[in-house]
Task: inverse folding
């Protein structure tokens, strides 16, 4: 009981509420601006937390993280420019919805889905941290390898009807992901001795180019501005639509939680896996990619489900799963706290105060998100003749800002042309992205497994987790093939 | 005509002298504008966090703004190459260097700059040891036991990326002990830790700040520290050099950070910064900060810093060649 009052006194101070509010607000705004990443925002905010109380400091950073996860979807939906890599998936159905005049509906669905996923992720953090952390520790390279294999099977389902074109796009994405340094030997691959290519192709310029630029080219080519209807107005999410999506949201949230709990996986992969699972299960399968509200819900649930869960390995094992949690780990250390098993013994009250704060931050996300939709959605009402040049400006700025490198602007333009060709030839860009994101993870974990196992293949079949994903992978291939046959015979 | 030429000559000479004086006196009260502190990595890493803290303290010492800029790319070589080239604001641009500076130079022979002679070495700020750690389930309790085992069977060490100080420490250990260690790369220390904790890999030479909490909680066992002397935070853990029965005298690897500038940086600026950074190092905030990072203050500066860099480049070049990671 004494502990309980200590927890309350640690949490119920104004500073904490202000920190959460500022954090979530900053996160949403920065997440919405292409090129400004959540990681950057959290890193920039870190020095300001040195002088704060530990709980407020961590909550400020967590707020930015969560706000950023959601904020990225705003520009993805409205102007087809993903603010963060993880929101690339939201765009697949969000932007078509906006084009059909359902921008507001898409934005609201994205927010509701984000908030629900966030809450589910928080609850998992609070109640299942110890259990999930154990899974995370047992999730080595071979387990990861099979998870990626399973995820790669979704290429088939994301290709629309054109499976061959889908594989082509995925192969191209895979090829582009090979550019850079070899992960084991450090030798240069496809870099043409250019130092700009040594770290590989940057993700943000690729995304911005691939999605935003083709729209711009298309607009100027057609010059029929008034016919493209993007409006922020329009209908709200109806109760029946929400009910329809609820199962998808819960499923996506748990996919996010599990992927978030495993260090080194990431929100982008979670969004795509959740999206493809939703598509596989949905009766409206054919409508995915053309403005299906369930697609928006699935993508956002996947990436926001990750946010709370990345704190699981951080708090229970002291292991940061991504760059943002690595910075948050730094913030803990600066305040003389060491996340890990010992923290649950020594600073239990502080952890529970943090948990309350993290739950409160989800509610703040809802409030700030509703406000953001109201103001950001005015973007959609700007005449297109004015809006498109501004979008190009943001594209150029966004591509440059990630690494402060002009090379990335050219890269972005190049991918813009590629995206345009994709659009004209009916090649879906989702498989391309999957190849680009999952390709390196596939290679890394394959080679890492072989190194760990001293090139003994039995490491790929070493335990229940590997077998679980092997069965899933084979099942997924089987059902995709069956569906494809049925489709062909139709 | 002659007189006219003479007048022209004299006026040219005087004007160039005056301009020369002007140029040298232009830096008399350096800094004259904001200073750019370049971090050659993305935001969020150890070097970045340190740089922001140092910028904050240096700002108080010098009374100008210190703008921290992240310029990641190709290890740290993109930002470092740009620093060497000079350009706009070169007289007010400094860079937070780390072992990446010397390791980059030892791995890539075709860098567009000379890691020693194209820079002015201002002040080394800190040193932190790496720690040789094994999973708690590991049967080995001393470095000697580990070496004996690693000679008889293939074993693995984890590292957070090719060319990191952790990777190169492992390669150096392998070379000196003639063991059969295999390097297993991970994308960052965060991803490498679970493999180490669960025993998927046998050993690592991780940064002290990363593994200290796990040593304290019992998840990892520290076999040795890689510095010359024992580490304050782990007084009972021997250094690798102390290992009996093996000559491991060459095995000293530390993670360090220091401030460098390009050759276009004025000498006046170097002096001002050296004095200011030495005052920063004396500040309580700095001491507390590096304590938490598991690091110790360095007192190396100027020419000594430069010769340290020169010897490090040579040493890692040899290790990189032995390990087969030197690119040609």
Result:
């Amino acid at each position: 009981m004494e502990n309980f009052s200590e927890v309350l006194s640690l949490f119920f101070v104004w500073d904490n509420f202000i920190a959460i509010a500022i954090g979530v607000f900053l996160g949403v705004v920065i997440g919405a601006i292409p090129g400004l990443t959540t990681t950057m925002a959290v890193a920039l905010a870190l020095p300001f937390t040195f002088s704060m109380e530990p709980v407020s400091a961590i909550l400020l950073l967590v707020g930015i993280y969560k706000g950023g996860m959601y904020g990225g979807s705003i520009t993805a939906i409205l102007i087809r420019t993903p603010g963060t890599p993880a929101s690339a998936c939201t765009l697949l159905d969000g932007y078509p919805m906006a084009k059909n005049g359902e921008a507001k509906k898409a934005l609201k669905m994205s927010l509701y889905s984000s908030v629900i996923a966030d809450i589910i992720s928080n609850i998992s953090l609070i109640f299942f941290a110890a259990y999930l952390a154990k899974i995370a520790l047992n999730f080595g390279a071979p387990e990861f390898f099979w998870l990626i294999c399973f995820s790669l099977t979704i290429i088939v389902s994301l290709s629309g009807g054109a499976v061959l074109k889908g594989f082509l796009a995925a192969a191209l994405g895979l090829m582009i992901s090979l550019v850079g340094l070899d992960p084991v030997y450090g030798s240069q691959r496809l870099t043409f001795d250019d130092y700009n290519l040594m770290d590989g192709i940057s993700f943000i310029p690729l995304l911005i180019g691939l999605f935003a630029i083709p729209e711009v080219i298309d607009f100027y080519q057609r010059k029929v501005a008034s016919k493209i209807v993007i409006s922020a107005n329009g209908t709200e999410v109806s109760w029946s639509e929400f009910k329809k999506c609820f199962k998808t949201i819960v499923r996506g949230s748990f996919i996010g939680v599990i992927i978030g709990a495993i260090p080194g996986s990431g929100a982008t992969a979670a969004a795509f896996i959740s999206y493809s699972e939703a598509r596989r299960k949905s009766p409206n399968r054919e409508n995915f990619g053309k403005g299906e509200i369930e697609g928006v819900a699935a993508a956002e649930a996947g990436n926001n489900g990750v946010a709370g869960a990345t704190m699981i390995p951080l708090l229970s094992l002291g292991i940061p799963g991504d760059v943002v949690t690595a910075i948050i780990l730094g913030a803990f250390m600066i305040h003389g706290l060491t996340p890990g098993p010992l923290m649950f013994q020594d600073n239990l009250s502080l952890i529970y105060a943090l948990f309350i704060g993290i739950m409160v931050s989800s509610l703040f996300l809802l409030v700030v998100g509703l406000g953001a939709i109201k103001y950001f959605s005015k973007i959609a009402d700007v005449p297109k003749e004015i809006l498109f040049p501004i979008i190009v400006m943001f594209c150029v700025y966004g591509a440059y800002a990630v690494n402060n490198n002009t090379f990335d602007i050219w890269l972005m333009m190049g991918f813009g042309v590629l995206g345009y060709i994709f659009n004209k030839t009916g090649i879906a860009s989702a498989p391309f992205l999957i190849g680009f994101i999952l390709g390196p993870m596939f290679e890394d974990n394959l080679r890492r497994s072989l190194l760990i196992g001293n090139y003994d293949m039995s490491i790929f079949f070493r335990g229940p987790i590997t077998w679980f994903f092997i069965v899933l992978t084979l099942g997924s291939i089987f059902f995709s093939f069956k569906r494809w046959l049925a489709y062909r015979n139709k | 005509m002659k007189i006219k030429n003479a007048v022209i000559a004299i006026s040219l000479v005087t004007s160039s002298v005056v301009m020369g004086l002007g140029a040298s006196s232009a830096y008399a009260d350096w800094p004259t504008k904001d200073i750019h502190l370049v971090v050659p990595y993305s935001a969020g890493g150890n070097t970045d966090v340190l740089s922001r803290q140092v910028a904050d303290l240096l700002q108080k010492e010098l009374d100008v703004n210190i703008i921290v800029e992240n310029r990641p790319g190709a290890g740290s070589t993109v930002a470092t190459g740009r620093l060497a080239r000079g350009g706009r604001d070169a007289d007010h641009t400094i860079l937070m260097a780390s072992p990446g500076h010397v390791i980059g130079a030892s791995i890539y022979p075709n860098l567009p700059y000379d890691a020693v002679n194209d820079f002015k070495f201002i002040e080394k700020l800190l040193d932190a040891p790496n720690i040789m750690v094994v999973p708690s389930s590991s049967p080995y309790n001393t470095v000697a036991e580990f070496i004996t085992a690693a000679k008889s069977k293939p074993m693995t060490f984890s590292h957070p990326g090719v060319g990191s100080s952790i990777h190169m420490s492992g390669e150096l250990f392998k070379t000196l002990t003639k063991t059969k260690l295999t390097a297993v790369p991970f994308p960052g220390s965060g991803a490498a830790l679970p493999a180490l904790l669960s025993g998927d890999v046998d050993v690592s030479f991780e940064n002290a700040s990363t593994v200290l909490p796990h040593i304290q909680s019992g998840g990892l066992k520290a076999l040795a520290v890689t510095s010359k002397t024992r580490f304050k935070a782990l007084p009972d853990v021997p250094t690798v050099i102390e290992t009996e029965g093996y000559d491991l005298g060459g095995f000293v690897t530390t993670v360090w950070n220091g401030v460098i500038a390009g050759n276009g940086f004025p000498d006046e600026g170097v002096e001002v910064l050296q004095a200011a950074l030495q005052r920063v190092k004396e500040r309580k905030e700095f001491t507390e900060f590096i304590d938490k990072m598991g690091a110790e203050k360095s007192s190396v500066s100027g020419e000594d810093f430069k010769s340290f860099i020169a010897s490090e480049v040579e040493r890692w070049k040899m290790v990189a060649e032995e390990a087969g990671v030197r690119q040609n």
